[in-house]
Design goal:
The structure holds three protein chains of three kinds. Chain B is 37% helix and 13% strand. By secondary structure, chain B is of the alpha/beta class. Classes of the chains: A alpha+beta, B alpha/beta, C mainly alpha. Chains in contact: A-B, A-C, B-C.
Chain lengths: 467, 479, 95
């Protein structure tokens, strides 16, 4: 009997509001430590939080994009625990009445849609950043120490808790990529996993196919890329199956995935059992989102990425459609005319992507002309044109005017020179190693700086080599 | 009483008698300078504070307004703010509380920071980590608390007026014990921004003054919405400085439980009854009423809600960003636990433990959750009473000032000092304590409670009674 | 509901208060007495009553998302017991 993975994801999205969640310090990344703090986010005695209106609106917007109900009345709670990155000794979060709850998020896959339930999406404040320093910097000589930077402390987060509906590491990756694309399109977060503005923890368990209920789960933390999320979950699923098949039991614990080694290890934890003593935050009043706020947010949620993937899949194929949408290139794709939609998609996902140009700045018509003509202009001219395609006033014309060298009178001297310079290869080809043709083509292309017409070169080479 | 003029035609400033209103008049007419006024209070502090210990820090700012003293939970930029705790020894704020900023903007120089029970937790000012304050009427006795320093400073002529804070009665009760006027405002009318937090849903800043008119004046200065405090509101009507003594048509309720409670000194009861009779003579309609559950359950409710919030509010004192840090080789948890054990006194520790317990898994519903429901009951009971009455009256404190050390070893006995001030506080209602005479040579306080935003009514009734009673607020032994 | 030594130690650990061994029993006795007194609230049947989280019924108090100046770093660190290179130093945390 086969095993079924059961995966529940918890995602933190850092909002890119201009200011922090409960004070008006700038919400910026990469500044000198402790230069974006104030008495409020340093929790000086007597200071009080004042919520960021934009953060609340964005949480509502995200909740709507996740198909959630927006609470008519929601509360902030205090989550009490001690840690140096938590200056008040409590985090202001939401508890039993979050801003958004009971939603669903559709994740298209090659074999059809998967619907992932959303338990809740709530607002909270981020912790500060601690860095470990060695003994030399310790207060007491030789002692280990940590340094705390409160710049990030108090920046707004939306925590999204999904139902345990995900069934594989690959599906988790897709869910996360689509969610990322959604928040990027909503304009509420940079959602960069490497920078920590998108974070994902996974609760993982497995069960026999058809089994009711859930077995013991483990919590996987610190997976800071889409690939690590997929690899980490896959590795943990295999580990758990291995344990059960060997007759063992999975132990509930928090685990850390090491992407270099591909291994999983428990996080060291000396914490006593958590007891967060949640209670309603007496320094804040209830949020009752006005109808006009909710309706404005609803109007600002466009067509979701998952829906667009399904629409594009009919024109190209799933992988290309998925790639276009999750890389944010499907907008450009729609603007580029051309009969051969797969060719357009391929160029966007490969050659154009390699240039690193901003798809939003590319003129679709001009790019369409280039793609149509890509077989007839020199390869290098095509690539140069792509690299310049986001420039102001870009026109395809100059590049289209460049012609390929196909005339035998121009090619022959080049081909003759190359054959003369490589007598060994010529002999080997003539001895039957016809695979060497590619080598000669490459040499000619190099000599002509990519301007030679590959078909003409092939033809002339064959003629000359068999002569 | 008007200040006396000496033969040399120089104004003698009698700080024991001078009201803030009179002081403002002297300044306004140019009869004294701001420096002379501050100088007079600094001289009084030098003379009497070694005995009273009303101040933790004397700043002696110069300025042209009526000087003021702030309870040491009121954050003052550049001026030490300790909350009466060792854990904040050496802490110098980098910002001003909203009330301090408003006083500053009005030109009120700061005389200093007054003593208090540590983190405003207590009813005698004996819980200060820096030693107790003594009652100007009898230095062997407590001034009440937790705003005992502010009350003693005003009563002892060491400040014309002062700010305190009131969570369970910490302005009203010391005002009562020191023979001054104290207002606990409607919750939400005075900003808590920069007030070292004890229990957020109860804490309010309130004025301590010699007269009701001074009190109204200072309240007008500090009250109103503050964008830094989400729980504040704009006053529905401007503050009216009271005049006159006519109480015709004012409906006064005398809640049985508040006036016949066990533990009310006979002398206290008599003074309060005399005041009630005076109110009738001034035209008020007086009737008996009842607040059975508010009085019965108020204290228990308070000692769950306040410690629970305090346990969370006091979590920030961890020795990382400011304040005391223990000298210890050890891990972070050990450092936290030692720092906090060393830095907090017995009462904050007791309340942190109690509050943590009341919020912890398995106990929340029985304790904190239930207490928040009791608050609803208390609020409803008061709301019903205020359908029939404009004001409810009772003693502020069941007793006059008690001896230093008398209740220090028995937390529960100490907690009973606030049994009459707590119920209306739980409902967020305003209360004014005015002196209504002496018992055993010590001041007795009359508590006037009104519905939300009824401060103007309280001032009007308080002023009328103040005039009728004619209480002399200068302690006899200091004259 | 009597409070035990273990309860006291558990709560003290949660609250990060290191009670010296010889004071644990005193603390337990005091807490026990107070808890007995405040336990009075459970005499009332309030299953139909809403808890009061705020004395005033305010909603939607918030501020516009417009930055204001932060503290200069030296002021942020002015009260720190152990500042180090512009940061707040503490004994090592976590792993």
């Amino acid at each position: 009997m086969s095993w079924e993975p059961v995966i529940g994801l918890e995602i933190h999205v850092q909002l890119k509001t201009r200011t922090k969640m409960f004070c008006r310090c700038e919400n910026v990344w990469g500044e000198e430590p402790n230069t974006r703090t104030c008495p409020i986010c340093l929790a000086h005695p007597g200071t009080l939080p004042v919520p960021n209106r934009t953060a609340i609106e964005w949480a509502v917007k995200l909740g709507l994009a996740l198909g959630c109900q927006i609470a008519a009345r929601s509360l902030f709670h205090r989550k009490n625990y001690f840690y140096p990155d938590l200056p008040k000794g409590y985090q202001i979060s939401q508890y039993d009445v979050p801003v958004a709850s009971r939603g669903r998020f559709v994740v298209p896959g090659p074999d059809g849609d998967r619907e992932i339930g959303i338990v809740r999406a709530h607002l909270e404040e981020d912790a500060a950043k601690t860095v470990h320093v060695g003994g030399a910097a310790g207060r007491i000589h030789g002692a280990e120490a940590s340094l705390v930077d409160f710049n990030r402390g108090g920046t707004p987060l939306v925590e999204i808790v999904a139902e345990p509906d995900v069934r594989s590491g690959e599906e988790a990756r897709r869910f996360l990529q689509l969610l990322r694309q959604t928040v990027v399109e909503l304009g509420i977060s940079d959602a960069e996993m490497e920078k920590g503005s998108l974070r994902c923890d996974a609760n993982v368990s497995v069960r026999r196919a058809g089994e009711e209920g859930y077995r013991t789960k483990t919590e996987l933390k610190n997976m800071n890329s889409f690939k690590f999320v997929a690899d980490g979950i896959t590795a943990e699923v295999e580990r758990q199956i291995g344990i059960y098949e060997a007759g063992g039991e999975v132990v509930q614990q928090t685990l850390h995935f090491d992407p270099q080694k591909g291994t999983i290890a428990p996080l060291r934890s000396k914490e006593e059992a958590h007891d967060y003593r949640y209670f309603p935050e007496p320094d804040l009043v209830a949020i009752e989102p006005p109808e006009e706020l909710v309706e404005r947010a609803r109007a600002e949620v466009g067509e979701l990425p998952g829906t667009r993937i399904r629409r594009l899949e009919a024109e190209v194929d799933f992988d290309l459609a998925y790639g276009l949408v999750t890389s944010g290139r499907d907008g450009l794709y729609a603007r580029v005319p051309g009969e051969d939609r797969r060719a357009v998609a391929n160029v966007l996902m490969n050659q154009l992507a390699a240039t690193g140009v901003d798809p939003a700045a590319v003129a679709g018509d001009e790019l369409g002309k280039l793609i149509d003509a890509r077989e007839t202009i020199p390869r290098q001219a095509f690539l140069d044109a792509l690299a310049a395609s986001a420039d102001d006033g870009f026109s395809a014309e100059r590049y289209l005017a460049e012609t390929t060298v196909s005339d035998a009178s121009e090619l022959d001297p080049v081909i003759d020179g190359i054959l003369a310079a490589n007598p060994g290869q010529v002999e080997a080809y003539r001895g039957g190693k016809e695979g060497l043709l590619g080598f000669f083509v490459g040499q000619v292309m190099k000599e002509t700086q990519g301007k030679a017409d590959p078909r003409a070169v092939n033809e002339r080479l064959r003629e000359k080599l068999s002569a | 009483m008007a200040p006396q003029t000496s033969e040399a035609d120089r104004t003698v400033i009698d700080t024991l008698r001078l009201t803030a209103e009179e002081a403002a008049g002297l300044l306004g007419r140019g009869e004294v300078s701001g420096d002379e006024l501050v100088g007079a209070y600094l001289a009084a502090i030098e003379a009497r504070d070694p005995e009273l210990h009303a101040y933790l820090h004397v700043e002696g700012e110069r300025g042209n307004g009526v000087p003021i003293a702030h309870k040491d939970v009121i954050t003052t930029k550049g001026i030490p703010t300790t909350a009466g705790s060792k854990i904040l020894a050496g802490y110098t704020p980098v910002f001003d509380s909203t009330v301090a900023a408003r006083c500053k903007a009005a030109g009120l120089p700061i005389l200093g920071k007054t003593n208090l029970d540590e983190f405003a937790m207590g009813s005698s000012t004996e819980n200060s980590a820096y030693g107790p304050t003594r009652n100007p009427w009898d230095p062997e006795r407590v001034p009440g608390g937790s705003s005992g320093g502010s009350a003693a400073a005003v009563a002892g002529g060491l400040a014309p007026w002062a700010l305190g804070t009131d969570t369970g009665g910490s302005v009203k009760q010391p005002a009562s014990l020191c023979g001054v006027v104290g207002l606990r405002p409607t919750y939400g009318t005075v900003s808590r921004y920069g007030i070292v937090a004890f229990a957020s849903s109860l804490d309010q800043v309130g004025p301590l003054t010699k007269t009701v008119r001074d009190n109204a004046g200072l309240y007008a200065l500090i009250a109103g919405k503050d964008p830094c405090d989400s729980t504040t509101v704009e006053l529905p009507a401007p503050v009216v400085i009271p005049e006159g003594t006519d109480l015709t048509g004012v409906r006064i309720g005398v809640a049985r439980e508040m006036n016949e409670a066990e533990g009310i000194d006979p002398g206290v009861g008599e003074r309060v009854n005399e005041a009630i009779r005076l109110a009738e003579e001034l035209g008020a309609d007086v009737e008996e009423t009842s607040l059975p559950r508010s009085v019965d359950y108020g204290l228990a409710c308070y000692y769950l809600v306040a410690p629970a919030e305090a346990s969370s509010n006091l979590a920030r004192y961890d020795g990382v960003r400011y304040g005391h840090r223990a000298e210890i080789d050890g891990d972070l948890t050990a450092l936290y636990s030692r720092t906090r054990w060393e830095g907090f006194g017995a009462e904050p520790k007791r309340r942190i433990l109690l509050g943590t317990y009341a919020l912890s898994a398995g106990y929340y519903d029985a304790y904190y959750g239930q207490a928040q429901k009791v608050r609803t009951v208390i609020a409803q009971e008061h709301a019903a009473a205020f359908e029939r009455f404009d004001v409810l009256v009772s003693p502020t404190s069941p007793t006059v000032a008690f001896r230093i050390g008398e209740k220090a070893e028995n937390p529960l006995a100490m907690y009973l000092s606030d049994v009459l001030t707590i119920p209306s506080n739980m409902a967020g209602l305003p209360g004014l304590s005015i002196p209504c005479g002496l018992s055993e040579g010590l001041p007795v306080g009359l508590q006037l409670i009104g519905p939300q935003f009824s401060e103007n009514t309280l001032f009007r009734v308080g002023h009328a009674l103040e005039q009728a009673i004619g209480f002399d607020y200068v302690p006899e032994r200091l004259t | 509901m009597a409070i035990t030594r273990e309860d006291v130690l558990h709560v003290a650990a949660l609250a990060r208060l290191e009670i010296p061994e010889d004071e644990v029993d005193t603390v337990r006795d005091q807490l026990g007495a107070i808890l007995e007194a405040v336990g009075k609230v459970s005499e009332l049947d309030l299953s139909e009553v809403e808890p009061m989280t705020h004395p005033l019924d305010l909603v939607n108090e918030w501020a516009e998302d417009e930055p204001r100046p932060s503290l200069p770093r030296d002021e942020a660190l002015a009260n720190a017991p152990d500042p180090f290179e512009g940061q707040f130093r503490v004994p090592a945390v976590g792993g």
